[in-house]
Amino acid sequence: MSSVAAELVDVRKTFGPTVALDRVNLRAYEAEVHAIIGGNGSGKSTLAKVISGVLVPDHGQVSIFGKSATTPSESKELGIANVYQEVLVADECSVLDNLFLGADGLFGAAEPHDVRYERARQIMADLLGFELDPDTIVGELPLSIKQWITIARGMLTNPRVLILDESSAALDFEATERLFRKIREMKADGCAIFIVTHRIAELVRIADRATVLRDGLSVGTLEQQEITEENILHLIAGPERERA
Ligand code: ADP
Ligand code: MG
């Protein structure tokens, strides 16, 4: 039995009058691709941020490898990386600088420029399928490459828990395949990967388990053999549609 990487118990998160998450229970294991699926506004990104410690729940517990983090930097120390849904890059900076934005606390100032440059070159070639000079200024690059930069930034921290929030949104089918190949490699190394998505076809291809959110509630977790479009749609739709 592999160990629990992330566990949420009875989590609630509100924004003023909006209840973004309520009574959310979830457990993800090491070496598992765990999908979070749900409609627009169902609380997926809020859940991603609660897992990664960026948002603190109003109620309930979040633990990562059995420990609870109370600040984003503690979460990072526990090995969490969250690739946000918003593609956050500094246009005026190089690919290299974007990849290691805010990374100094993680790698220490000891990592020489050449080492970073080579790591950046390698991961981008691996993900893009072609060479991209890490000194390229990001500004003029297409959105898909900017999205790859945010994905690579998360992966470069060698996370034990990686959260990808709609990270394939700007990627075509072939690029998504490359992302999935990389995800399978990380999984083989024991990483727990959360894939947040509203694209059911994608998660059928990659997920080991899938938790479904509806209006902020976790309405079920499907095991791999249960992950079908029909089952997911059924859970997303809820009882009202069942009666219709
Ligand atoms: P999803 O990622 O599934 O589309 P979100 O987690 O982004 O859903 O949002 C869930 C709900 O919480 C939505 O109603 C959204 O408007 C609200 N929400 C999310 N973030 C904030 C915020 N920072 N301030 C206020 N409301 C928010
Ligand atoms: Mg979202």
UniProtKB/TrEMBL annotation:
Lineage: superkingdom: Bacteria
Q: Which regions span the lipid bilayer? A: none
Q: Where is the ABC transporter domain?
A: 6-240
Protein family according to the UniProt entry: Belongs to the ABC transporter superfamily.
**Record protein name field:** YbhB/YbcL family Raf kinase inhibitor-like protein
Please tell me where this chain falls within the complete protein, as first and last residue plus total length.
1 to 244 of 720
